Amino acid sequence: MHSNTYRIPKREQPVELVVDPDGPVQGRLFLLPPGPDSGEGEGPPELLNQRERFVVVRLESGEIRCYNKRYLVEVRFREPPRPDADTAPRVPCRFRLHDGREVEGNVREYLPPEHSRLIDYLNYVSGPFVRLELDDGTVVLLNKRYCVWAVPLL
After folding, report:
1. FRET label pair with 97: which of 19, 34, 47, 74, CA 20 to 30 Å apart?
2. Domain residue limits at 56
């Protein structure tokens, strides 16, 4: 018998995962919605950079899987434009992944001016995933474990 008494309401976010060694997987992450206890709600970066080792994903087939975050190479998703899209500092960069692929995009993060280099951002993000915005509006979370190198494109 299952009870909804302890069920935490979640919203589903469509994502494309690249899983090592499985490859691309289409699914949905379960995120906290906006509310009194969660503020503006939870996004994929907040979920994936939490200390828990596993994340729950509903596959397009409906199957529920618990993925070890360590083996998520990247997570791609769409989100509405940021309110600060025109003013947030932008660092164009390219990442080389362990499988030889390269991903180009922009890092956008408010950091102190004396710590606004790409290396500062990579070391600033305490979780395993860094956020990269692509020119087509897609957001990619890259697992730092699979990043071989990163270069600023200035």
Report:
1. 47
2. 11-77
**Distance in angstroms between the alpha carbons of the first and the last residue of the chain:** 58
Q: Which of 25, 53, 77 is the last residue of a domain?
A: 77
Tell me 34's DSSP state.
Answer: S
In contact, 12 and 31? CB cutoff 8 Å: yes
Q: Specify the CATH number for the domain of residue 52.
A: 2.30.30
pTM of the model: 0.90
**CA distances (Å), 82 to each of 48, 85, 133, 137, 149, in order?**
19, 5, 11, 10, 27
For 88-124, the pLDDT digits (tens) are 888 999 999 999 999 999 998 877 778 788 998 898 8
